[in-house]
Amino acid sequence: MSSCAALRALAVLLWVAAAYPVVFRARPVQALAANWGTRALHPLPGDITVRLLRDNGFDKVKLFEADAPALRALGHSGIQVMLGLPNELLAPVAASVNAAEQWVLQNVSTYVSKFGVDIRYVAVGNEPFLKSYKGKFEAATLPAVQNVQAALVKAGLARQVHVTVPLNADVYESLDGRPSSGDFRPDIAGLMVSLVRFLLDNGGVLTINIYPFLSLYADPNFPMDYAFFPSPGAPPSQASVQDGNVLYTNVFDANYDTLIAALEKHGLGAIPVVVGEIGWPTDGDKNANAVNAQRFNQGLFDRIIAGKGTPRRPQMPDVYVFALLDEDNKSVDPGNFERHWGVFNYDGSPKYRLNLAGGRPIVPARGVRYLSKQWCVLRPDASTSDPAIAGAVGYACQYSDCTSLGTGSSCGNLDARANVSYAFNQFFQAANQQKAACNFNNLSTIVTTDPSQGTCRFEIMIDTGRHELTGKSAAGRVASASWSAVLALGLAGLAAAAW
Ligand SMILES: *[C@@H]1O[C@H](CO)[C@@H](O)[C@H](O)[C@H]1NC(C)=O
Ligand SMILES: *[C@@H]1O[C@H](CO)[C@@H](O)[C@H](O)[C@H]1NC(C)=O
Ligand SMILES: *[C@@H]1O[C@H](CO)[C@@H](O)[C@H](O)[C@H]1NC(C)=O
Ligand SMILES: *[C@@H]1O[C@H](CO)[C@@H](O)[C@H](O)[C@H]1NC(C)=O
C-alpha cells in the first residue's frame, strides 16, 4: 500500500471511529484477569483490593482458596471469580462425594446465593501434576474433579460454575523444540487425556500456567529476548523457532502452541485453554526487576488488549496475570523472587507504569491506611561487629521478609549497617511497630526519617487494625497476642545467645 493510500485508509478509519464510536468500542478489547493471593503479613483489605481491580479494568480474578473476607468483598462487584480448591483437599474430596458436596455448599453455594459472588470456575488443585510433587496428587485429581462436578450439579450450579484444573506447563513437551511436535509428558499422558476429556464433556476449560521468567531463571543460557514479547517493528529474536511456515518469536506463543498441538494430537483440540498464571517478578533475583517486569507485562497487556492470540489459537484466551499484589509471607522454596510477583506493591501502589487500553496507566489503590512514619534501625553507636548482631538479624528475618537483601536484589547493595537496619525494620513493621519489636539487645533504635536509599525501600506496613481485617489464613492475622509471644521468645533467645 502506498503511503498516500495508507493515509487515506487511516482518514476513513478515523472518520468511521468518530461516526461510530460504539461500534469501535465493541472491538474484542479483552478485559483483564488477575491472581489475588492473600499470603501477606499485612494483606491489603478486601474492599480496597476489589476497588483496585475495578479501577484498573480487571473483571476476572482467581483465588487460591476460599478466603472468606476476599470472597465477601467480591460480592456484587461485577468481578467473575475462579475459586481454587487447594491440593491438600484433593484426597479427601476425591475419596468422598459428601466431602465434595460440603466443600461446594460451604465454599461456593453460600457465596453465590448469600453474598452475590459471581463464581464461574472451581479450579480443582493447583499444578497437581508438577514434576517436583513426584506423583503425590496424581491419583486424586481426576476423581476430585468428578466429585466437584457432581456436587455442582447437585447444588444446581452446574450451568454457571464449571470445573478446571490449573496445570504447570511441565505437563507437556516438545522433544525437537517445535510447537507442532508437542505432546503430553509420557508419565501422565493417559491421565491428561482422561482429564481433558472429562473437562470437555462437562463444559470445563483447561488452565495452564506459563512462566517465561522461570525459563530464564532455570537456564542461564536461555535467550533473554525470547522470553519477552517482541516490541512492534523490532527484529525477531535470534532464538525464534521456525515451525513449518510459522515463525515463533517468543516463548509464550511457542509454549502455548505446544500444548495446543498436544491436545490436537489426542483429538482434544476443542477444549478452551485459559492461562491461569503468567507474569514477571520485580525483586529477589538478578532478572527480577521493574524494567524487565514492565517490558514483559506491557507486552502481555498489549496482546490481551488487542485480543491477539497465538498462531494456533488466534484469539487471546482469558489470561490471569500473576500477580496482582506482592505477598511477603509466601514460601520462598521456588526462590526469593516468589514474594515479588505483584504488578502492584503490597499496598496496591503501582511498581512501574503499565498502560491499559487507550494508553491509560494503571492507578493505585485508594484509601489505604498505614502505620506511623517510623522505622527501626541499627543504633548509630552500635558496632556491626557486635556478637549479638548475627542472631538478631537471623531472628528478624525468620519472622519477616528479608528477600530484598539477596545478591542482585533491590537492597543487595546496602553496606553492612544499612543491611542490618533493613532486617530490623522489616521485623518491626511486621510486628505492627510495637515498641518491643525494636529492641534487639539494645542494638536498635526508632527513627522518623526514611532510611530508604537507591532502589532499596524501607517500607511502612499497612495498619490492618484500622481496616476491617481481611484474609483468614495468612499470618497477617497474627493477633498482637501471638506477636507478643514471638517477641518474648525471640528476645529470650537473643539474650541466651549473647550471654
Ligand atoms: C472451604 O474452603 C476452605 C479453604 O480452602 C477449607 O479450609 C474448608 O475446609 C472448606 N470447607 C469444606 C466443607 O471443605
Ligand atoms: C508466615 O508467617 C508465619 C508467622 O510469622 C511464620 O510462622 C511462617 O513461617 C511464615 N511463612 C513464610 C512462608 O514466611
Ligand atoms: C545482608 O544481609 C543478608 C541477609 O541477612 C546477607 O545474606 C548478606 O550477606 C548481607 N550483606 C552484607 C553486605 O552484610
Ligand atoms: C543501651 O545502650 C545505650 C548506649 O550504648 C546505653 O546508654 C543504655 O544504658 C543501654 N540500655 C540497656 C538496657 O542496656
TrEMBL record:
GO CC term, one of those recorded: side of membrane
EC number per UniProt: 3.2.1.39
Main location: membrane
Family per record: Belongs to the glycosyl hydrolase 17 family.
Domain X8, residue spans: 374-458
Catalytic activity: Hydrolysis of (1->3)-beta-D-glucosidic linkages in (1->3)-beta-D-glucans
Protein's organism: Panicum miliaceum (Proso millet)
Locations listed in the record: Cell membrane
Keywords: Cell membrane, Disulfide bond, Glycoprotein, Glycosidase, GPI-anchor, Hydrolase, Lipoprotein, Membrane, Plant defense, Signal
A Pfam entry, by short name: X8
Stated name of the protein: glucan endo-1,3-beta-D-glucosidase
Signal peptide range in chain numbering: 1-19
Stored SUPFAM superfamilies: (Trans)glycosidases
UniProt-listed Gene3D superfamilies: 1.20.58.1040, Glycosidases
Highest taxon listed in the record's lineage: Eukaryota
One biological process term in Gene Ontology: carbohydrate metabolic process
GO MF term list: glucan endo-1,3-beta-D-glucosidase activity
